[in-house]
Amino acid sequence: MTIRALAFDLDGTLVDSIADLARAANAARADLGLPPLAEATVESYVGDGANSLVARTLADDHGAQWRNSPEQQQAMQRFDIHYKAGLTIATRFYPKVQETLHALHERGLPLAIVTNKPERYTLPLLRELGVSEQFEVVVGGDTLPERKPSALPLQHVLERFGVAGDEMLMVGDSKNDILAARAAGCPVVAVEYGYGSDVASLGADHIIASFAELLEFVEA
């Protein structure tokens, strides 16, 4: 395949942010008089955007839905304060991510972020980590009317980059990433170290153990 552009999920793909998400979620729960959740529990609730994460961590139930109830609104307000105050306290790039992004950027390939994380967290997080200038397009979970697994975020990036679906590689760690890529006609690579469970069953074109393996899919 000839790859002319790449799009990346953020949490669980480029960065390990669970410690900061769990800290903020548990601080919000504490504000509401609730006991803390295990970090692994919070991790299992990540992937469908901030509203979903707050609904799930508030109820401690993966099936919880965002209903915009007064309690959920209060929990979101508290989570928002706590998370914005510490976006990168413990959040770190996975191994070889920075070097690989730099190498791809140096090859002149346009790079995009396509995440379900809202813009109000995504944009400052990228700035704090010092990589915002490497991404020509950033699509958050609230940038467009639909988010992953919809094809719309990737279609938006394809239009901005002026490339066909089969010319842009999507890189992620979850079912939402694979479904969005399939819907947009993009090849997709899954990282095996992320937050997605049973990655081999997700249906990606390839699975990589190290982020640096992405360079093998791009012609020098």
- Please report the total strand number as a whole number: 8
Under CATH at level 1, the class of the largest domain stands as Alpha Beta
* CATH architecture assignment of the largest domain: 3-Layer(aba) Sandwich
The profile of the biggest β sheet is: 6 strands, parallel
Q: How much helix, percentage-wise, in residues?
A: 25-40%
What is the overall silhouette? globular
Order of helices and strands: EEHHHHEHEHEHEHEE
Could you say how many structural domains there are in total?
2
Kindly, what is the distance between the CA atoms of the first and last residues, rounded to a whole number of angstroms? 13 Å
**Poorly predicted runs of 5 or more residues:** none
- The percentage of residues in β strands lies in 5-15%
Average pLDDT rating: 96
Strand order of the largest sheet: 5-4-1-6-7-8
Alpha-beta classification: alpha/beta
Count of helical stretches:
8
Whole-number radius of gyration? 17 Å
CATH superfamily of the largest domain: HAD superfamily/HAD-like
CATH topology of the largest domain: Rossmann fold
